[in-house]
Write a structure and sequence with these properties.
With 79 residues, the protein is an all-alpha fold. 80% of the residues lie in helices and 0% in strands.
């Protein structure tokens, strides 16, 4: 998902993931959620709507947290 929405941030995200296990785990969880949500929406998996909404909110929260970490990293590493 990150690659589709913000490919320009991928190099920074890769550096962060290599340096920070928490960010690495968030990026992996985001990918898992993205796949699961896609599967449910495509009819390959079944899930109650309320559960799907919870997963979407979790995915958005993760995206926001990773994006914030990227911004902080870029700010700290810019002259």
């Amino acid at each position: 998902m990150f690659k589709e929405c913000c490919p320009e941030l991928i190099p920074v995200m890769e550096k962060l993931a290599a340096e920070n296990p928490h960010i690495d785990a968030l990026i992996k969880r985001h990918a898992e959620l993205n796949q699961l949500i896609d599967d449910v929406e495509a009819g390959r998996e079944h899930m109650e709507e309320i559960e799907l909404d919870k997963l979407k909110k979790e995915k958005l929260h993760i995206k926001d947290e990773v994006y914030q970490a990227v911004l902080e990293y870029k700010k700290a590493h810019t002259l």
